[in-house]
Amino acid sequence: MPAPWTELLPAVGLAIGLAACAGLRAWLPLLLAGGLARVGWLDVGPSFAFIASDRALLIFGVATVVEIAADKVPAVDHVLDALSTVLRPAAASLLAASVFGDFTDPLTAWVAGVAIGAPTALVPHAAKSLLRAASSTFTLGLANPVISVLEDLFAVALFLVAVIVPILAAVGVLVVAFLVLRRLGRRAPSAAVPAS
């Protein structure tokens, strides 16, 4: 029997919020979600219980420290950002799929997770890229470590909002998506009309 919309809607909001966190930091939201699942504060499907295992939490923890530290080093942050273009949507898909695991079979959860997680992760990733490009241009990258700390704090805050008030997190992500797409649309070169 399918889950009623009153249960599914918060799960969709949670999936969007967690996926957006992964758009900023790939490993931090996995670590936080695994920790909350471990203590029973976040429900994940049985097929996704591995994110709360000792091994997964150790991997997520080490990877989080490396990601956060490397993002503070100028030049390394750009390489990390390029590598994360693939890693962040994958982490977002896993996070989104994990919250659907209680409502459906694992394959459907993965399909929903990829459909929601991957594109959602690209929203904050694109916003972050725009901000970093402006910072690199105007401060020669000197402000990037400070911006990185703010991104860390924002990722944790967004994670908490997503877990506590998932619909609010989803609405916030959708508003940011609209603003980013509008900004990118303005930057696209317009086709010149040939003179007759």
TL;DR?
With 196 residues, the protein is mainly alpha-helical. The protein is built from seven helices and no strands.
Kindly report the average pLDDT value.
Answer: 87
The secondary structure category is: mainly alpha
Summarize the helix and strand pattern as letters.
Answer: HHHHHHH
Distance between the termini: 64 Å
The total beta strand count reads 0
The portion of residues assigned to helices is over 70%
The general outline is: globular
Rg of Cα set: 18 Å
* Count of DSSP H/I helices: 7
Poorly predicted ranges: none
Largest beta-sheet details: none
β-strand percent reads under 5%
Sequence-ordered SSE layout with sheet pairings:
Layout: H1 5-24, H2 28-38, H3 54-70, H4 76-100, H5 106-139, H6 144-164, H7 166-187
Textual characterization of the structure:
By secondary structure, the chain is mainly α. It has helices at 5-24, 28-38, 54-70, 76-100, 106-139, 144-164, 166-187. The model has no long low-confidence stretch (mean pLDDT 87).
Supply database-style keywords.
196 residues; mainly alpha; 77% helix; globular
